[in-house]
UniProtKB/TrEMBL annotation:
Signal peptide: none annotated. PANTHER family: ACETYL-COENZYME A SYNTHETASE, ACETYL-COENZYME A SYNTHETASE 1. Keywords: Acetylation, ATP-binding, Ligase, Nucleotide-binding. This is Acetate--CoA ligase. Transmembrane segments: none annotated. It comes from Persephonella atlantica. It is an enzyme of class 6 (ligase). Residues 91-472 form the AMP-dependent synthetase/ligase domain. Belongs to the ATP-dependent AMP-binding enzyme family.
Length: 633
């Protein structure tokens, strides 16, 4: 940053009012938002029932809006719907058959456009293909594919027939994929041969081969072959287009109960293996629809671009279900943000006249490093709303986003939410005043607070735990096969949803998220459990013990550092470091590979033998050690 520190500080404490051109368009003003917020807390049932009726199509209306028997809750009990009907059929029936649903592009600047009508037909063909393999309502389908239209269509095809999809990010290793396939007992795995990143082909098929090896319950593997591929398919493997080519393009949507499962998505917790977060159809459809419409202020002729990957929750809620339910045209881009050059994303914004752009702070910081000259080469004047998600956005990055990308003509929405929450929880809507680095206010139906360990509200601007006081429509319903882990969310601080984040609340009620309160590391907006990385390291023959911490990193937000005690007879050297990194890549995937590995003789532990990562971290960063009364020696 060229600017003087004081100047940045001044800007940080400034309130940014929404630009006139944003205000002229908005669906709701700040006052309307506030009024509706009040209603949503006072009468959640009446509030959500009204929106459910106005915004979605139901085959049958619900009998009861919400049932809350601690710790469980249900929404729209007895209601029948299919999310794909809301995402596709109703638009096609209402004159939007020829409206573009997705514009796909990639590093080679290829372009594929698919309309709502065509997408519905593709989804139906895949749905019929899945049915022909015996996939039925409730069966699990794992999707391990790159960001291509067929990927999104496969998710929708599952939802069409009531199969539960579990998408696994295509950067995960064979072992991580296998764990997810096994845990969900997937009947079918859908994959593709490769993806391309920075001009290099990344093989996906061999990862799947390794992941399903010996798993007999996996009946079929559907393989999307890409340009130039000629794979010899084995016995249980079927070519994607071979499977769907003779299928009918009509498929009646399965009549789903509002509380039937829609998908499982695995995410890291502070202990043990990843949790399979389960979302159900009705509440999720409504909440993602409403947040997409109002937080991004989407209008009929807008072009919307979310740069996430469907392997994460952001992709589920804000690339697939939310935008399609609202009926907008979305851009999707396979490949790296800065390849073939750092102007790539901005050239896409210019080319497609993108109005709403949603990305992660790590990407913004990456572009800050490349410098303003890259975005300045392109016409970004179509942009109106800029979104941020995945990790706290530091004020410098916020201001850069606002000034260099938004030209002070856009509203920024810094959306705090989680895999578990299904949709945006804390943010400002575009008509609201914004503060750099502060996510903002709770969205409709979200009763948020910052509290101490006992659940009492913290004083203004004091750090505490972020909690939500009552269930909202898209709250996770359970953790797949592990109901006790679900309960923990609501019992950690009694009767409140415990988000696991530290936060403060200011005099205007704006919430600032400071980061995780638990042993979860956020690398480039991706959640990684210290326990996962540690157990991957310990599974290496040279490692006796391992402890992992997150360290501040100027682009990634956090990077991983591992401290390792070697077993007798192993030499600490560069070759071993390389080997350990390779090992973690193989066990978990490249996301989880530590940037730094340090060999140590001893790890700080409590008397009961638990590693005190907090102490390691404080020592590493030169911070006060804090309370070390429980330290062993
Ligand atoms: C962090 C991603 C600050 C937070 C949607 C949360 C954020 C975790 C923000 C969830 C934000 C997400 N400001 N922190 N706007 N958005 N986080 O499940 O620590 O991949 O608990 O969901 O990301 O990550 P997840």
């Amino acid at each position: 940053m060229s600017e003087h520190k004081d100047e940045v500080l001044l800007k940080v404490n400034k309130v940014y009012n929404p630009p006139q051109r944003v205000l002229e368009k908005v669906h709701i003003t700040a006052e309307e938002f506030d009024r509706m917020y009040e209603q949503s807390i006072k009468d959640p049932e009446g509030f959500w029932a009204k929106l459910a009726e106005e915004e979605l199509h139901w085959f049958k209306k619900w009998d009861k809006v919400r049932e809350w028997e601690f710790p469980e809750y249900k929404w729209f009990i007895g209601g029948k719907l299919n999310i794909t009907y809301n995402c596709l059929d109703r638009h096609v029936k209402n004159g939007k058959r020829n409206k573009v649903a997705y514009i796909y592009t990639n590093e080679d600047n290829q372009e594929i456009k698919i309309t709502y009508g065509e997408l519905l037909e593709l989804v139906n063909k895949i749905a019929n293909g899945l049915k022909s393999l015996g996939v039925r309502k409730g069966d699990r389908v794992v999707i391990y594919m790159p960001l291509v239209i067929e990927q999104l269509a496969t998710m929708l095809a599952c939802a069409r027939i009531g199969a539960v999809h579990s998408v696994v990010y295509a950067g995960f290793s064979a072992n991580a994929l296998r764990m997810r396939i096994e845990d969900a007992k997937a009947r079918v795995v859908v994959t593709s041969t490769w993806t391309k990143r920075r001009g290099k082909k990344i093989d996906l098929k061999s990862v799947v081969d390794e992941a399903v090896d010996g798993l007999e319950f996996v009946e079929n593997i559907i393989v999307l072959q890409r340009e130039g591929d000629e794979f010899e398919l084995e016995e249980r493997e079927i070519d994607f287009y071979e499977l769907i080519k003779d299928q009918s393009s009509e498929c009646e949507p399965e009549v789903m109960d509002a509380e039937d499962p829609l998908f499982i998505l695995y995410t890291s917790g502070s202990t043990g293996k990843p949790k399979g977060v389960l979302h159900t159809v009705g509440g999720y459809n409504l909440y993602t629809h409403v947040t997409t419409k109002y937080v991004f202020d989407i209008h009929e002729d807008d072009i919307y671009w979310c740069t996430a990957d469907p392997g994460w929750i952001t992709g589920h809620s804000y690339m697939v279900y939310g935008p399609l339910s609202v009926g907008v045209t979305s851009v999707i881009a396979e490949g790296a943000p800065d390849y073939p050059d750092p102007g790539r994303w901005w050239s896409i914004v210019e080319k497609y006249r993108v109005n709403i752009f949603y990305t992660a702070p790590t990407a913004i910081r990456l572009f800050m490093k490349y410098g303003e000259e890259w975005p300045n080469k392109y016409d970004l004047s179509s942009l109106r709303i800029l979104g941020s998600v995945g990790e706290p956005i530091n004020p410098e990055a916020w201001i850069w986003y606002y000034e260099v990308i938004g030209k002070k003509q856009c509203s920024i929405v810094d959306t705090w939410w989680q895999t578990e929450t299904g949709g945006h929880m804390i943010t400002t809507v575009p008509a609201y005043p914004q503060k750099p680095g502060k996510a903002g206010k709770p969205f409709w139906g979200v009763e948020a607070d910052v509290v101490d360990r006992e659940g009492y509200s913290e004083e203004t601007n004091k750090v505490g735990y972020l909690i939500i006081k009552q269930p909202w429509p898209s709250a996770l319903r359970t953790c797949w096969g592990e109901p006790e882990r679900f309960e923990k969310y609501w019992t950690e601080i009694d009767h409140y949803y415990f988000a696991g984040d530290l936060a403060t609340k200011d005099e205007d009620g704006y919430i600032m998220i400071l980061g995780r309160a638990d042993d979860v590391i956020n690398v480039s907006g991706h959640r990684i459990g210290t326990a996962e990385v540690e157990s991957a390291l310990v599974s290496h023959p040279a490692v006796a013990e391992a402890a992992v911490i997150g360290k501040p990193h100027d682009v990634k937000g956090e990077s991983i550092k591992a401290f390792i005690i070697l077993k007798q007879g192993h030499e600490p050297n560069e070759t071993l470091i390389k080997d350990l990194k390779m090992h973690v890549r193989h066990e978990l995937g490249s996301l989880a590979v530590p940037d730094e590995i340090e060999f140590v003789e001893k790890l700080p532990k409590t008397r009961s033998g638990k590693i005190m990562r907090r102490v390691l971290k404080a020592r590493e960063l030169g911070l006060p050690l804090g309370d070390i009364s429980t330290l062993e020696d």
